[in-house]
Amino acid sequence: MLGTNLLKHQSKPERIADQAWEYLTSTVNSAGDSVKHTARSARRTGAHLGSHAGDRMGAVTDEARVRAGRAYDALAGRRQGLPWGWLIGAGLVGAALAWAASSASRAALARAERELPDSDRVEFVDVDRANSAVRADTA
Question: Do residues 125 and 134 make contact, with C-beta atoms less than 8 angstroms apart?
């Protein structure tokens, strides 16, 4: 009640000034909330975009560092080391292939020997043994 009486006793320019002041403060407050919301949204979006750009740039940066290090070593006259991991891997793959080939050839020979008829088989006899079926004449 006290406030309503005071407003009635104000002059017209004072009332207009008070209304303008209230309108200005409410506009500034709502604009401040809007700016806060926009800033918060921009910060989230910026952080999101920045993390994606960082992920993409991470691999590129690592590759650039490796290449720069190799170029520096080349300019300094240092030779690049042997790729021991690749050499050992190639040796292991070669050994595995050789083992597989020898196992396959043994299996194929055994299968072929089983499939031969008895008349085609050749029997080897040791000549130097005393109990052998065939003796060599030494006279």
Answer: yes
